[in-house]
């Protein structure tokens, strides 16, 4: 799809999402080369209040549905106890805290005001994407290869999602190599309502064995920086995956919240990336890094059947929570 057409489609979907969800447009201000809104204004518009927990440094926004925790000069936030990474850092100027306008539109409002499916449209079909395969082993820990365990995990998750009433299929059923663009194409051809790419992480070098936890990636908003370690800068335009930014972040949040709350995994947060499987997805899509192969704390959830099944059930529960939010009753 040509970039100009894709950007136009993205902007149209962004405006539609905003029309469904948030209170009226708030005053914008330019700070440090970015566009912001005053945090007090946003909080009041959403029935909340801002409280400084550490003056000029840490804040809590008390909302009807829960608390939003923020820190000045940081992109790391917590919404209802689950970590969410912002696109731009919280700013402080003339005694006031400011939140990026892009984060209001593409992160906070979608979580507070979930975008609904058209009337009668149900979430039924899910495509699971076991990461790597064939000549691509993925991460390695000793003789264990990521591609082996993503496939085992996908098959176990398939079983549980099917029992929950979904139509489920996998992008690969064996140790086969599938090009990255083809993975999203498979989901499109099968009419997927959701696309979940499954991975396990790894940390190298001294201290790598203590790095642990789960993180869930969704598509990076247009012209913002990714949060993955190899992330791109803010110059990237729109991709097909950006048309569903609001639902992408809602899905990622519900999955991350369920995984961390129900398995005890360390919460590394909802993050952003322009991974190819996310860029090309034409349905809500996430990439789940469900734990570190190099971590003794995470190893049981990856290698042992019972804890791994608990992890799979947490993902099912996250999907069900998302389904409840987006379907019209």
Key structural traits:
alpha+beta, Aminopeptidase, 329 residues, globular, disordered N terminus, 2 domains, Copper Amine Oxidase, Chain A, domain 1
Describe the fold and architecture.
There is one protein chain. This protein is an alpha+beta fold. The protein folds into two domains: 23-112, Copper amine oxidase-like, N-terminal domain (Copper Amine Oxidase, Chain A, domain 1); 125-326, Aminopeptidase. It is built from nine helices and 17 strands. The chain has helices spanning 3-21, 39-45, 101-112, 146-163, 180-189, 245-263, 276-279, 296-303, 305-326, and strands at residues 29-31, 34-38, 49-54, 58-63, 66-71, 76-79, 82-85, 91-93, 96-100, 125-130, 140-141, 144-145, 167-170, 194-201, 214-219, 267-273, 285-292. Helix 1 (3-21) crosses helix 3 (101-112), helix 6 packs antiparallel against helix 9 (305-326) and helix 8 (296-303) packs across helix 9.
Quick rundown:
This protein has 329 residues and is an alpha+beta fold. The protein is 36% helix and 26% strand.
Helices and strands: which structural class? alpha+beta
**What is the number of helices?**
9
Q: In one word, what is the shape?
A: globular
The number of E-state strands comes to 17
What is the C-alpha radius of gyration, as a whole number of Å?
A: 19 Å
Order of helices and strands: HEEHEEEEEEEHEEEHEHEEHEHEHH
Query: Strand order across the biggest sheet?
Result: 13-10-14-17-15-16
Largest beta-sheet details: 6 strands, mixed
User: Looking at CATH, which topology of the largest domain would you report?
Assistant: Aminopeptidase
**Which CATH first-tier class of the largest domain would you pick?**
Alpha Beta
In the predicted model, the low-confidence regions spanning at least 5 consecutive residues are 1-21
Give the overall average pLDDT: 92
Please state roughly what percent of the residues sit in beta strands, choosing from under 5%, 5-15%, 15-25%, 25-35%, 35-45% or over 45%.
Answer: 25-35%
Question: What is the CATH homologous superfamily assignment of the largest domain?
Answer: Zn-dependent exopeptidases
Number of domains: 2
Terminus-to-terminus distance:
34 Å
- Using the 3D structure, state the CATH architecture of the largest domain: 3-Layer(aba) Sandwich
Q: Helical content, roughly?
A: 25-40%
């Amino acid at each position: 799809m040509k970039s100009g057409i894709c950007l136009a489609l993205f902007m149209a979907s962004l405006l539609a999402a905003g029309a469904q969800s948030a209170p009226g447009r708030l005053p914008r201000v330019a700070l440090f080369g970015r566009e912001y809104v005053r945090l007090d204004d946003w909080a009041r518009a959403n029935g909340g209040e801002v409280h400084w927990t550490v003056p000029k440094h840490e804040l809590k926004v008390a909302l009807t549905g829960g608390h939003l925790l923020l820190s000045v000069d940081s992109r790391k936030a917590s919404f209802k106890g689950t970590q969410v990474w912002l696109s731009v850092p919280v700013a402080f100027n003339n005694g006031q805290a400011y939140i990026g306008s892009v984060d209001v539109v593409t992160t906070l409002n979608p979580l507070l005001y979930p975008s609904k499916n058209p009337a009668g449209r149900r979430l039924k079909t899910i495509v699971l994407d076991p990461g790597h395969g064939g000549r691509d082993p993925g991460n390695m820990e000793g003789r264990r290869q990521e591609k082996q365990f993503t496939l085992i995990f996908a098959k176990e998750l398939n079983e549980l999602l099917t029992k929950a009433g979904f139509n489920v299929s996998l992008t690969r059923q064996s140790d086969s190599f599938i090009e990255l663009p083809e993975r999203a194409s498979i989901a499109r051809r099968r009419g997927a309502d959701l696309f979940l790419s499954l991975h396990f992480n790894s940390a190298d070098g001294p201290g790598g064995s203590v790095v642990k936890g789960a993180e869930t990636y969704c598509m990076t908003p247009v012209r913002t920086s990714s949060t993955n370690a190899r992330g791109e800068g803010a110059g990237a335009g729109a991709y097909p995956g950006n048309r569903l930014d609001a639902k992408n972040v809602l899905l990622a949040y519900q999955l991350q919240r369920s995984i961390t709350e129900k398995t005890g995994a360390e919460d590394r947060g909802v993050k952003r990336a322009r991974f190819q499987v996310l860029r090309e997805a034409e349905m809500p899509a996430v990439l789940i890094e469900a734990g570190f192969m190099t971590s003794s704390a995470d190893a049981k959830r990856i290698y042992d059947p019972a804890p791994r099944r608990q992890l799979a059930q947490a993902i099912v529960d996250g999907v069900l929570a998302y389904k409840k939010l987006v379907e019209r009753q």
